[in-house]
Amino acid sequence: MKGWTKSWFGLSKKATSNQNSAVPNPEYSRSPLTAKTNHPLDGNYGAKKDVSSKGAFKDMEMSSAIPDANEDILMSGGPSTVDREALNSPSGKNSDILPEVDHEPSGYLKLKIDSLKLEGNHTDAAMAMECTSFKQLFLVIQFGTSEYVSPPLKWKSSTRDTAISIPSRDSSAAASRASSMLSNFTFNTSTMSYCPTSSTPNPSAPSHVVFDVAKRLPVELNIYDHSRGNCFVGKTVIHPCYDYNQYEQYSNRVEVSSAYAQLVDLRVQLSSVFQPLNKKSYGPEDFEPLKLIGKGTFGQVYLVRKKDTRRVYAMKILSKKVIVRRKEVTHTIGERDILVQTAAADSPFIVALRFSFQTPKDLYLVTDYMAGGELFWHLQKSIRFPEARAKFYIAELLLALQALHKRGIVYRDLKPENILLDVQGHIALCDFGLSKANLSVGSTTRTFCGTTDYLAPEVILDEGGYDMMVDFWSLGVLLYEMTCGWSPFYAENTQQLYKNIVFGKVRFPRGLLSAEARDLIKLLLNRNAKNRLGAHGDAEEVKRHSFFADINWEELSAKRFSPPFKPIVEGEFDVSNFDVEFTNKEVPNDFVPVGDMSTSAPLSSTVQNGFKGFTYVDSSQMDEAYNTEPGSPTSSVSSFHDDYHNQDFNRTNDDFFMDHIDP
Ligand SMILES: Nc1ncnc2c1ncn2[C@@H]1O[C@H](COP(=O)(O)OP(=O)(O)OP(=O)(O)O)[C@@H](O)[C@H]1O
Q1: Burial of residue 580, with CB atoms counted within 10 A of its CB: 0-12 exposed, 13-18 middle, 19 or more buried
Q2: Please, what are the averages of pLDDT over each run of 10 residues along the chain (663 residues)?
Q3: Does a structural domain hold residue 471?
């Protein structure tokens, strides 16, 4: 059908420039598989008034020094070996998050994997063959949303430290020899060989992992087989002992996946110790830049390594000058505040803020690094996802939105660029720059913001304000985009896009979507927000839709659903899922040391004061003020409003959907 042959055009990210201009750029740049510059439209543009922040800036505090991360984990006091199989079983009663003590780092957890041991009687030749491929096993150790990807583990015999070489499959005699050899083999991580690749800027990886601990969480160990396309082998969960300086050893049976069930009987042996922190505050000099991974409106995002624990993080650096010039002080402080609140929301599907601090020039937000990259990146490559894969992402997103809405936060900028994947393929929402906190149920807001393709009609129309339902509208757009490969409202220019959103027809390609998926999209893309799915019960109502009939929400929220796709991530410094446009750029050896805020500031002390509240700010006053400013994006859609009000609007929601078009 005419106009729908450019199926992936909907995924081209448009340069809807907000470069200090109130008027969205009418011309999209259309380079579908390359560009990614769909800047959000933000109601702040053109605003004359800035709202100064409340409250005082407070660095995340640490409370003691961390010994060198390479220091041996073994502590005096003697180990107590505990078989915590029952306690630590992923399906066991005790597998949920332990009572939280504090939201700020209170210590660090050192973990040392002593061995991955193959047990049982390996008399079967096929089993022996399988086991040899385990030369390429690696671990993904997950602490909250912080992940450590180990280098491949090295086989080690209990008697000889040697890699095993097994002859071809059809040699049964050799296979049985191998079988007997394997009966007592372990992977010994203390001798694991670390192979630096081009994506590993610094090859000196520690032989154990240290996590910065704010909440006393369980640790999940996932085992993958690199030789079989990073196939999931199994996992186990440990609940580390959080008594200071208490050394513990664990011996856990790995819950293996069905593909490996008859072949292996794996046990992981590890030790842990939790130690207090002395350090009071952090600054950029505590982090080593490794790679540039992204650029946003106000600055860059780097992959960094924290010097003391050697943990990798994503560090977003926001230039104060640019923020002030673009009158975004309040929003920026709001982003930090929302990240703090979401950290407390305990959603595994929201990127976790670890540290925030500022220098005279910049603001810094340090979050867990999501090595799988943006969902946008993967969608571009696949053009569209199979429905089951789209369902998985939409279901996890729904849980993320539920956690936000419960805390009175409307996200407002749901789009594939803001959805990141972790190493295992679970989603994590990032970028809370446009989110709004403290929106109670039933109340509305009026700021004109979001990203054009995903704007709900009530945001464009600006009639009675809008509420959390805008997020469900965007979710509907996203589901359509993931399953069909283009945007439901795709248009050549902004004015036409707005028209399509407010009264255009949504066309479903023939035979691509199930009846349930179509129905869910229709219900989410209901122009009347009061009748939109979610209006009566928020995410719970959406979760009950038949599209999600096969989702066990409890399992999903505990991340026990195996993701349908695992991004390729080789080692903890891997940035191959990010655009080479960024990752190929030179990075500084170090971030500049922090200067004295009062003397070396390039901005006046009054302006600096505005950043004192790099903490919570109630931005409700801002919405009203900015909406009425001349030249704001709200006024930029006035010509569209004129058009819109001349249209026949006495149609039902069903009139907006057409079931059959050719893909
Ligand atoms: N925790 C993270 N892990 C991995 N990548 C990240 C992380 N945070 C940000 N990024 C990368 O950096 C990009 C820009 O980050 P972010 O969207 O937060 O910046 P922004 O300045 O708000 O961007 P924009 O102006 O487009 O809204 C992301 O799209 C993502 O590719």
Answers
A1: exposed
A2: 30 34 28 34 30 26 32 31 33 28 66 74 48 68 90 57 34 43 44 34 52 89 85 90 90 85 72 84 90 87 93 91 77 70 74 85 90 93 95 96 88 86 94 60 55 77 75 94 91 85 87 94 92 93 97 92 91 92 89 54 63 40 27 35 39 48 41
A3: yes
**The ligand 1 atom nearest the CA atom of 413:** 27
CA of 432 to the centre of ligand 1 (A): 10
Active-site residue numbers? Answer: 413
Name which of 619, 448, 614, 444 is nearest 51 in CA terms: 619
CATH code where residue 363 lies: 3.30.200.20
Q: Is residue 354 classed as helix, strand or coil in its secondary structure?
A: strand
On whether 316 is known to bind a ligand per the annotation, the reply is yes
Q: 3-class SS at 319?
A: strand
Report d(CA 399, CA 554) in Å as an integer.
10
Residue 460 lies in a domain: yes
CA distances from residue 343 to 306, 353, 397, 403, 605 in whole angstroms, order as listed: 19, 6, 16, 10, 31
Residues 319 and 338 in one domain: yes
Q: Which residues are 138's β-sheet partners?
A: 224
CB neighbours (10 Å) of residue 387? 18
Q: Is residue 303 part of a domain?
A: yes
Does any domain span residue 112?
Answer: yes
Q: Is the shortest distance between the CB of 314 and ligand 1 below 6 Å?
A: yes
Calculate how far, in angstroms, residue 461's C-alpha sits from the geometric centre of ligand 1.
Answer: 29
Of 14, 149, 301, 353, the residue with max ligand 1 atoms within 8 A of its CB, to mutate for a pocket test, comes to: 301
Q: Is the pTM of this model over 0.80?
A: no
Q: Is 129 in the pocket of ligand 1 (CB under 6 A)?
A: no
Number of other residues whose CB lies within 10 A of the CB of residue 159 = 9
Q: Which residues fall within 8 angstroms of residue 359, CB to CB, at 6 or more apart?
A: 283, 284, 592, 594, 595, 597
- Indicate the number of domains in the chain: 3
Give me ligand 1 centre to Cα 430, in Å.
Answer: 7
